Model the fold of this input.
Amino acid sequence: MKSLLSKQSLKKLGGILFLTALVELMTGGPGQQLTPNLGLKLSFGERVSYFGLFVTQRWLVFLTLGLIIFVLSSVTWRNGSPVKYVRGTVSGFSKYVPRNKYARALFIVALVVLVFLMPTFVSNAYWRAAMVEQVAIYVLLALGLNVVVGFAGLLDLGFVAFYAIGTYTTAWITGSLPLAPPFHHALNPFWAIPIAIAIAMASGILLGAPTLRLRGDYLAIVTLGFGEIIAVLANNLFSVTGGATGTNQIPHFSFHVGPFSYLWGLDPVPYYYLVIGFTILFFIAFHFLNESRIGRSWTAIREDEVAAESIGINPLKFKVMAFAIGAASAGFAGVITAGQNNFVTPDMFTLQFSINVLVLVIFGGMGSITGVSLGAVVVQVVTMQLDHNPPSGFIPQDLFMYLGALLVVMMIFRPAGLFPAKRRHREFGQASQGIGHGNEVLMGETNE
Amino acid sequence: MSSPLIYDVKNITLRFGGVVSINNLSLEHRRGEILAVIGPNGAGKTSLFNSLTGVYQPQEGSIDLFGADGEKMSVIGKKPHRVATAGVARTFQASRMFNAMTVFENVKAGAENHRGLGVMGAIFRGPGTRRDDRETDAQVLELLEFVGLRDRANAISASLNYGDRRRLEIARGLATKPSALLLDEPAAGTNPSEKFELTELIRRVRDVRGVSILLIEHDMKLVMSLAERIYVLNFGAAIASGTPAEIRANEDVIAAYLGSQKQGGK
Done:
């Protein structure tokens, strides 16, 4: 064991104490305009009860935690520090995921059954609504963005635009916008599904065809701009979208076929089954896409665009395709949201929304359909729990700070995500060893 | 020398700003021929390859490609993937595989038909799609057998050694069913025994599969034993062409490689 008082150790101690002080300050109480010192006072001076066990000043608790981390990372245990041991265990986690084909199938069937029975376990009204609006819809959105980010490797920061297009198309088809509906009379939101998907795909192609020649950061900026353009249009095209107040006239889903008729209403459970049904269809479709030659072409482009072109793959075509497919599922999610909420306003479509969906994809594991679905469930359920029943000391405004911190931790310990896709996992592994080459090397010109 | 042309390159010039990379170069590549392009560093060999495959667009001259059906296509102005589908496969100087894929998947990516969209076929996996898939798998295994990588089919391609990477690139290129295979320094970084096996493989590609070979190489022993005709490039221009014996005796070539009063100051 190295001495706890060596120069190196003291440096580490200093770093840890600095970080704990920073976290202490960041997570402490909010300041106020008139008493700017209030936040500082609350952070350091506040006496807080911890799990009803002991009451003490916040700073004492943080100092103790910092010291514990320091000691744990310095002592030797099982050929390394306990912190390293935990880190190793966490990153070796994938080996517990069943590899056997039948075990996997069983696992997925059990998961589907659980998902279908979910409403019988959840009786709380808050959670029944959140289950649809905040979890199921986000799973759908994450699945769609995963096609763009995970499969094709394109960073899309304007995903919300397609979601907005879906909701506004629904409002338009059902005759709830100032703009007259296309078929002279209002239609049921079900009719909006194919139309919204078609319009979202078309806008994906329109945006993608000229911009997908760009790579990496440039594409991210363009998509970010597109997301903002759609939000600004929704806000200002009063005669089309109803401006900032939007509309609250969108009817619920319903169907009347012969003697059968059903009206979706305020109860979220029927909506839950509607969303889940379609999500499973998207899930299966995306799974087969990824396993097909289209999926292999996406992987090829993502790993080495130049080599992909040399075997006859047209990168632009496959990127636009990924964009359109992602847009389709976002458009579909928009239809459901519009039908269920009955209202749509431009402020639903913020950059934060796009980034939130991106967080779900990264957290769950880019490129892994199961990963992003489970990741979306985990992040959204935790977020909703924090929002619904905040623990003492948690300030709801801090939520995105914690999500950001979560991403940082993920990037350090599990960069390929919670449940990484096989190929993505290898790519990250190779990147950290310096093998492989991304798009940045254009040609092997160096030796000529 | 009576077999039809596969590449007909006439007077191409490629410039990057003020730098002339290829200078008024003409080249003929005949069907079924193993043709080598040699030259000192910076002579424009890889630029020539990139021009032939649509990566670079020469400002002057013409490049005509005669595909499998003998149809003429002008390469200049075409995207690389168009040139690839017209029947030209290539390997890269620094081998470019899809590192995270297995050897099998690498070759399969090449073997698949990328022209149609087939989203519905991919999602619903109808009998047609599945049959295509099985046929592709069989082709891939056959190709891996051909290049001698059958037993590494499930290995991650990044785990291969240099020699095997070259084989994989060749298999991936052959999977696109090309008329011509362009090899950019295939022997770079390989040891003598790998070099020997590679020479044999390249010859077999031509003899067994009937694919014309165009090859850039620094290793003179390999070039002289393999090539039937050689072009020598210096400063972007062809200074000589002919059989290996002719090239070996050519004074300009010796001057370009060893330097002389006449050529050195150019």
Summary: Chain B touches chain A through 54 residues (CB under 8 Å).
